[in-house]
Amino acid sequence: MMVKRCFAAGVCWTLLMGCVFAAHALTFEVTDGNSTCIKAELSANFSISYNTTNGTSVARFVLPSSAAVGSSSSCGGGDVPPELVVMFGAGHTLALMFSSDGLLYRVANMSLQYNLSDTATFPQSSSSRIVSVMTNVSEISARLNSTYRCLSSMSVSLSTEVNITFSDVRMEAFMNRANLSTNESVCSADQTVTTTAPTPSPRTTVAPSPVPPPAPERGNYTITNGNGTACLLALMGLQLNITHHSKSLNKTVSEVMNLQPNRTTASGSCGVPRATLVLSEDLTNLTFTFTLNLTTQKFYLSAVNVSAFWPDMTDRFVEGNGSLNFLQCSVGRSYMCSAEQMLAVVPTFSINTFRLQLQPFNVTANRFAAAEECRVDQENMLIPIIVGAALAGLVLIILIAYLIGRKRTHAGYQTI
Ligand SMILES: *[C@@H]1O[C@H](CO)[C@@H](O)[C@H](O)[C@H]1NC(C)=O
Ligand SMILES: *[C@@H]1O[C@H](CO)[C@@H](O)[C@H](O)[C@H]1NC(C)=O
Ligand SMILES: *[C@@H]1O[C@H](CO)[C@@H](O)[C@H](O)[C@H]1NC(C)=O
Ligand SMILES: *[C@@H]1O[C@H](CO)[C@@H](O)[C@H](O)[C@H]1NC(C)=O
Ligand SMILES: *[C@@H]1O[C@H](CO)[C@@H](O)[C@H](O)[C@H]1NC(C)=O
Ligand SMILES: *[C@@H]1O[C@H](CO)[C@@H](O)[C@H](O)[C@H]1NC(C)=O
Ligand SMILES: *[C@@H]1O[C@H](CO)[C@@H](O)[C@H](O)[C@H]1NC(C)=O
Ligand SMILES: *[C@@H]1O[C@H](CO)[C@@H](O)[C@H](O)[C@H]1NC(C)=O
Ligand SMILES: *[C@@H]1O[C@H](CO)[C@@H](O)[C@H](O)[C@H]1NC(C)=O
Ligand SMILES: *[C@@H]1O[C@H](CO)[C@@H](O)[C@H](O)[C@H]1NC(C)=O
Ligand SMILES: *[C@@H]1O[C@H](CO)[C@@H](O)[C@H](O)[C@H]1NC(C)=O
Ligand SMILES: *[C@@H]1O[C@H](CO)[C@@H](O)[C@H](O)[C@H]1NC(C)=O
Predict the structure, then answer these.
(1) Which overall architecture, per CATH, does domain 2-195 show?
(2) What's the pLDDT tens digit per position in 260-317?
(3) What class has domain 211-373?
(4) Residues at CB less than 6 angstroms from ligand 6
(5) C-alpha of residue 349 to centroid of ligand 8, in Å
(6) How high is the pLDDT of residue 211?
(7) pTM of the complete model
(8) What pLDDT, on the 0 to 100 scale, is given for residue 5?
(9) How much distance in Å is there from the Cα of 161 to the middle of ligand 2?
(10) How far is CA 133 from CA 158, 263, 273, in A?
(11) For the chain, first and last CA: distance in Å?
(12) How many C-beta atoms surround the C-beta of residue 177 within 10 A?
């Protein structure tokens, strides 16, 4: 009974929160025939400075609920990008133009046209012009097939005179459903202020914090050659550690992210003397190059390249190092390291590996060959052996002492 009441109260609270969040958010939908291609729920506050007859003034207003999708909106196609055009008030227009690179979509261009002859909004304006401003700098980007979510306030400056502050944003472009995807790409502001986020983020990018994330899940990545047989096998948990300039904190931070196997796709190529494994996850591309030295008959990880654009980054992070010599192992064997291992690629980028086993060459029957263990594992294994040997030695000494003791006692009896 108690449980039921708590549950009911929880639901009420959730509904109430929903109402509070939805209070100002308006919904806009761009459709093509019967299918929706852009859907946006948002609230917007405008702050526009303009010249009046006796100085300058700032008009502040919210996007009114009478705002509607304009007919120049488009789902795109050919060379035309998809665009959401919202008309409101006395001839004002807000337009969001989207672009995509096949992995992410973003607001590539945001523009506003405002009509200074609207005296209700711009009292005593010295001009009655229509002013157009636009920017192609926006933080709004999300994975394809996911909803961009930013409940926190987010300001976009379109010019020195015009700022728009968005909040309660849920938006998706390049859709192929009627409703917003439940899969969300959460903006960095919502990630740091997790208490205001009603749903947990599917991403594991931990906003820069001193607390390291838990050990990553182990991925099973396989590359197959043309006829479907595996030629590169890798089982490993990966944690990326990138030092970059944080947008939210305006300083350099080391951000640690776990690669999520079920969001990661593996591709690559096999060959001699080089094999590559490319792991692509949402906002991260990672390339491992393995080289086989035919003289020494050993293979090793010779190069790592990374390209990442995480939500809190000011720029895309692109780094690599082509002269590495990690994870060395005899050809025909697999390399194994159960212990955590750090691969320092460049000073600003390292990878922590967990429970790793891999074989980039000579894979037969889709199975790992006999494993060659890393030194840490060998040392870890040595400890129980040493302890065991010490114990065995102790037992032996006690036994010998006992036997000698017994012999002495026997000898004593005989003399009597
Ligand atoms: C839209 O739906 C209606 C009825 O559901 C159907 O008759 C029409 O062909 C559909 N149009 C397109 C472009 O799919
Ligand atoms: C827009 O934002 C910038 C930076 O936050 C601020 O300096 C400027 O005064 C704002 N302009 C208006 C019209 O609100
Ligand atoms: C206001 O007037 C000044 C000078 O006349 C001009 O430089 C400025 O650009 C004007 N500002 C706006 C917002 O039109
Ligand atoms: C301009 O005039 C209006 C009323 O005439 C007044 O309310 C406003 O404060 C004045 N603005 C400035 C910058 O003097
Ligand atoms: C998005 O979904 C469509 C259809 O469900 C699929 O064809 C496409 O590959 C997906 N794109 C991504 C990047 O997941
Ligand atoms: C990895 O995946 C392959 C095929 O996808 C499967 O045969 C193999 O058992 C998996 N290995 C582990 C340890 O899950
Ligand atoms: C698949 O191709 C590789 C070389 O590309 C060859 O070594 C292997 O025997 C082939 N396996 C099968 C089952 O045909
Ligand atoms: C990430 O890298 C920084 C800088 O090299 C280092 O101080 C930090 O300990 C690393 N964190 C983890 C979890 O590896
Ligand atoms: C970021 O920090 C630098 C100096 O540490 C400062 O000059 C700059 O104004 C700051 N930027 C923002 C947006 O706060
Ligand atoms: C990925 O794995 C996590 C944890 O195992 C799970 O909660 C989540 O639903 C999975 N996501 C997908 C898209 O399979
Ligand atoms: C193979 O290893 C040997 C010995 O370390 C080295 O001298 C040689 O340059 C290596 N060959 C290649 C192709 O890297
Ligand atoms: C990852 O690679 C794909 C395909 O080359 C590219 O479109 C995407 O922008 C890359 N992502 C990052 C974060 O660099």
Answers:
(1) Beta Barrel (2.40)
(2) 999 999 999 998 899 999 999 989 999 999 999 999 999 999 999 999 999 889 899 9
(3) mainly beta
(4) 220, 222, 235
(5) 9
(6) 56
(7) 0.51
(8) 32
(9) 7
(10) 6, 38, 55
(11) 86
(12) 12
